[in-house]
What we know:
Elements: H1 7-12, E1 16-18, E2 23-28, E3 41-45, E4 48-54, H2 55-60, E5 68-74, H3 85-95, E6 100-104, E7 109-114, H4 118-131
Antiparallel strand pairs: 1-5, 2-4, 2-5, 3-4, 5-7, 6-7
Amino acid sequence: MIGETNIAKLVKGMTPKLNVGEYVFATVKDLNHIDRNDPICEFKEKEGTTIVIERKKADELHLNYQYIASWITLTIHSSLEAVGLTALFSTELATHNISCNVIAGYYHDHIFVEKKDAEKAIHVLTALSKSYGQN
């Protein structure tokens, strides 16, 4: 199934969903002590592997982290070739002083925002979706 590329359809249909839980970004040199089913995702960098993982699991593993995030999924199936969606929602969040960290999966875009900003981010994203193209 091919994802959506039309920016108007993407924004209008993005339907943000707040996932349950608290998530953290941590970096590890060795993944051997981590059950590979636990991280939400991982990304290899030259300094180490960044993982996004539930805070509770990070605490159990004694991982260091500074940023406690909420995870929002845009439920529309967006194409990896779509142009402009990330720019639109990240700009809108920025105008409301909300930092976001975005990870694109094959089917959906995933946004991590500071825990304290989760409800505000959902409101901002929903309002963007409802008002897009009405100007």
